[in-house]
Design goal:
- The complex is a heterodimer of chains A (about 300) and B (about 230).
- Chain A has two domains: about 180 residues, no CATH class; about 100 residues, Alpha-Beta Plaits.
- Helix content of chain A is about 70%, strand content about 10%.
- Chain A has a four-stranded antiparallel beta sheet.
- The longest helix of chain A is centred in the last third of the chain and has 41 residues.
- The mean pLDDT of chain B is about 90.
- Chain B is built from seven helices and ten strands.
- Chain B is α/β, with parallel strands linked by helices and about 230 residues long.
- In chain B, helix 3 packs across helix 4, helix 3 packs parallel to helix 5 and helix 5 packs parallel to helix 6.
- Classes of the chains: A alpha+beta (about 300), B alpha/beta (about 230).
- Chains A and B meet through helix 1, helix 7 and helix 8 of A and helix 2 and helix 3 of B.
Chain lengths: ~300, ~230
Amino acid sequence: MHVRSLLYFIGEAFKSIARNGWMSIASIGVVSITLLILGSFMVLSYNVDLFTQDKKEQLQIVLFLDEAGNEETILELQKKLASHPRLEEARFVSKEEAMERLKAQLGDRAYLLEGIDSAEENPLRDRYQLRTKVPEDIPVVAKEIEKYPGVGYLDYGKGVVEPLFQLTGLVRWIGLAFMAGLAATAIFLIAHTIRLTVYIRRREIMIMKYVGATDWFIRWPFIFEGSILGIVGAIVPLFVIYYGYEAAAHWLQSNVYFITLIPTENIMEEIIKIIIPLGVVLGVLGSSISVRRFLKV
Amino acid sequence: MIEIYHLYKKYLKNELYALKDINLIIDRGEFVFVVGHSGSGKSTLLKLLLREILPTKGSIKIFGRDITRLKNREIPFLRRNIGMVFQDFRLLEDRNVFENVAFSLRVIGTSPREIRKRVPLTLELVGLKNKAFKRPHELSGGEQQRVCVARAIVNRPAMLLADEPTGNLDPATSMEIMTLFQDINIRGTTVIVATHAKDIVDHFQKRVVVLENNQLVSDQERGAYFNAR
């Protein structure tokens, strides 16, 4: 595309945006709200992820071996665990090692274990510590492993883990559905704005066709108009998020000491990469719909 | 320049033909009147030449190429060689005369330098040198039609088509516009004017092609509207 044509298209696009006034503002507004919500979700989830990363990694299944099991079943079990596709790690912990850990945990109250800490009287069981590749897999994997021969019982926070994962899953889906609805509204409004432009410019379009303008020459200004609406609609929430985040970080630092937030620069870098292209996509989608339906070239 | 063979056009399947078995050859540099009553098929013929519509049957060769076989993306380049003048002018009311003419160059990617050079020359040719910065509504009908002509020829097309160009103009002004077409023709452009203005056709003594009942019934050099029928 020639630079001159490019400038022409952008110029025409801005003229239309100014001429369509309120429709343009409404389109930008809806894009902004959609992307503001998305951006806020992202900021929040990045920080929550950072915060819960350790916690999640601590989630594991503890598999206590059946005391009646013999060498063979244990070997068989070990093989099965090692080759399980959803398991990241299966670490054997002998009951002696477990006793040592317990002592370390109790610290200066380790005397409570006196008398039962000898090799003969150790009441603890040999066990495997299992970590899944994805924490959310824990309940499923646990149910499966429970049936393996040689397994005594499992401890994985049954009844606590499932609802937690269900809740986070639900929140994510509601958020996605909500945003999909908003995105559809944004696309619709942009399409409507472009349709208005096509209508206002019908005479120009007709003349362009008669004097031999190419189809794409006729289409580009409308595509640009949609893209500009989308980009402006993306820049607005970026500013809101930037200043909002700065303020929130400032407040948290002076009031809640133990929370560390991702630095503003880093998080902005992340969300700009998503928000701006999304704005463009919304704009281009909206304008292509109208160009396709109403621009007979 | 234009070769039309056994051309038929029907708009809808069960309708009558809008054009029936038209055969017509027009050479480079000719001036041709296409006459006939409303509904005789004049406009259909012009639309076919511009590739606005496709014929039902037959072939149309322009500049040696069968335009019925053009790909969609080739059509703009055909139209760059054909200027079109309308009965209702079709000017952009929000722009002045200069911009209206410049518009048709800009949208085909002509450089601003070239536009600044060619538009004033063309406005001079059509006699609107002093009205370049007037808006269409400040002009008379005849002047508006001159703008439309300027827009059609500014790209120096090989051919100029006009569909009832004097339909909205009084007789004196009509005569002026037609004289302008003649001037353009003398400079080498092929001109085809669809009209039913009898006086004009009789006055100019050019080739006259008569359409009646959707058929070509007469084609005479130096014809007149009536004796042609």
